Amino acid sequence: MELVVVLLLVLINGVLAASELAVVSSRRARLQPRADAGDAGAKAALALTEAPDRFLATVQIGITLVGILAGAFGGAALTTQLAAVIRRLEPLAPYANALAAVAVVGLITYLSLVVGELVPKRLALLNPEGVASLIARPMTLLAKVGAPAVWLLTVSSNLVLRLIGGRPGDESPVTEEDVEHLLQEGTRHGVFAESERAMVQGVFDLGDRNAGELMTPRRRMVALDLQSSDAENRARVAETSFAIFPVVDGSPDRVVGLVTVRSLWGRNRDDTPLDLASAMEPPLFVPESAPVLRVLEQFRRTRTHLAVVVDEYGGVEGLLTMEDVLAAIAGDLDAAGGGDAEGAVRRADGSWLLDGALPAHEVREVLGIAVLPGEEEGEFETLGGFVMAQLGHIPVEGEATATGGWRFEVVDMDGHRVDKVLAAPESAEPPPAD
Questions:
Q1: How far apart are CA 211 and CA 371, in angstroms?
Q2: What is the crossing angle of helices 119-126 and 128-145, to 10°?
Q3: What's the whole-model pTM score?
Q4: Which domain holds residue 187?
Q5: What is the largest CA-CA distance in the chain?
Q6: How many structural domains is the chain composed of?
Q7: pLDDT in tens, 55-69
Q8: Do 200 and 215 reside in the same domain of the chain?
Q9: Among 9, 156, 231, 347, which one is most buried in terms of CB atoms within 10 A?
């Protein structure tokens, strides 16, 4: 009979241990749908997660009482009965009490560890929300029955916590790193596709980037000019697939409006000159230091998908479109099935031919470099700027610098601008020029 009682107490200990780990491990995101669907157990589990101090005190009281009772039954009744059996063995008779005590303690310890702790906790980890929903209501009832003791333990533990500098009720906030870790784990287990993880990572990265990093630089701008002939403007529209164009008045620094192809063709027939002035809308100007998320909000508010990026002196630096933002999240939208970043071509020998206007963050992504010297200090924004910063002067073709295990050689200059750079692993022999 005493052995049955001990086994029952060990099982109760297992239920308490499982309940503790299940509630602590349960995710609100999984419990909430159950509760919304009318699962009373899930609602009770959510209530326990919101008051963890009371719940943990209840569990600890239960485990302590079970341990005391199991020890009492095991130490007294079971030891006496087992000692009587051992005395029948004459050589062991003098040591019967000691051997019985050791055997009973060993047995209870083994059962407590395996049946009362390890197995229940493993089961709780396999399905924490299910276990929590199952035992939450009994645990709530137990907390009410032991309310005075629970209150005393809760107050005492909170007092000690304050004495050592803690604040009861504080929870660690969910960080970006936590979400990234979950995404990586989900991708590793096949819950998310790699492309999905990369897109979410792109959204996170977007919060740390500004308009100057994502814009199309001024030298690549395609604009319609009020001072150009009708044929020239029509040719610019026909040669590109853009849906919206900036309108300038003789100079890229004089952006006077934006015009969409739809409004342009809607107001003009093929046999009449383009009336840019009547079709264009006021331009949206943003500083190159503007956070991309703020520019997105301006896009939403103004219902435009193109912004003119200007420097601190008001000079036009480039254009930022909604497509640029989407490309930063999902990759180059023009690249069917993925591929190299725009302005980066991988060669057969493992080296890269890079555009000097390639943004610094894209250089790091392509080459797998953690950080470029001087980037965090804002000394440059492009690969060409990095090379100039490293060399300390405007380079000539053939000059090189090295960092992060890569050798950067200037292979083409466009006036004073670094046009093309050859990046090769430092361990490899310098590749021959094309």
A1: 20
A2: 120
A3: 0.54
A4: 176-206
A5: 122
A6: 4
A7: 888 888 888 888 888
A8: no
A9: 9
